[in-house]
Amino acid sequence: MPILPRTAALGLIALLASSPVMAQPATVTMALDWTPNTNHIGLFVAEAKGFYDEAGIEVQILPYSDTSAATLVANHVADFGVIGSIGLFIQRAAGADLVATYALVQTETGRLVFNGDREDIQSPKDLDGKTYAGFGGGWEDVLLGTMIRYDGGRGEYETVTLGTSAYEALYNGAVDFTLEVYTWEGVKAERDGREQRAFRYADFGVPDQHTNFIGTTEAYLAAQPDTARAFISATQKGYAYAVEHPDEAAGILVAANPDAALDRDFVRASLQALIDGHYLRSAAGDVGTIDPAKMDAVGNFVFASGILRDADGKPLKDAPDFSTYYSTDYLSPLQ
Known about the structure:
The chain has about 325 residues and is α/β, with parallel strands linked by helices. The protein has two domains: about 25-105 and about 210-325, D-Maltodextrin-Binding Protein, domain 2 (3-Layer(aba) Sandwich); about 110-205, Periplasmic binding protein-like II (D-Maltodextrin-Binding Protein, domain 2), CATH 3.40.190.10. It has 13 helices and ten strands. Strands 2-1-3-10-4 form a five-stranded mixed sheet. A five-stranded mixed sheet has the order 7-6-8-5-9, covered by helices on one side. It starts with 5 loop residues before the first helix and ends in a 30-residue tail after the last helix. GO terms for molecular function: metal ion binding; transferase activity. Belongs to the NMT1/THI5 family.
């Protein structure tokens, strides 16, 4: 092995000392709330288009599991996760360290739905005495009771808990009504030729909401503010790109999730519903924006309903400061 002259060796040492060390990209783990679908499309677009690479981060989208994304985040198993709006309020009130940082949709995607040939159902009060196919959440009774009573009914109905089997039971006439996400189950029903009618929650006394968020913990934001900002900004860019390039975005989602056996035409139709309804991007052009007025309205609504409980399971006596349940500091102005 040749030996470097002393002057050359010293020069090499000086060069190495002055050369910047290549920084490793920060790793961010992201938990989904369900199997991959169009609510998640911006994440996969941001990954495929290199937006995360440009931001200097490596994002690991975790496989969906039976443990809720909110629980994974609150217990520091995942850095970020898709968190339902009502789940955020309930778990945070009970002491979970959760904070919303990105609104996946700008307005409610859920609706109360029933078969289109039901002439006996013209408004929510007609649901009194009928059978609801439910999913086992306490929020459902608050939601349905509010809508029916707002319309002049008693809010009295039978419930059978069926989970995702609710949609087949509805179609077969085994139950009278259920809840669905219009941009997924609703689009599927339309494509399958199943005529439906629906009531929007916000038309019958329930505040409009963002439905779901990308959220993290206050502890993570305090420890990794720059990484959080890079992740949220790049994700925002991914969703904005999906709105502008829906054909490409649908293909990216399908290609990134071969085990999910997604139907590309269905994914494309679902994405179009999200675009046309101004869910992913509002009519004013907002992408990812959290509306403080909506957060206060929903927070006060669920507080008044009595479903917000402390860590001991006791109903909260005073309404929390709901401005602490979310942060608007991590989005970037879109160009």
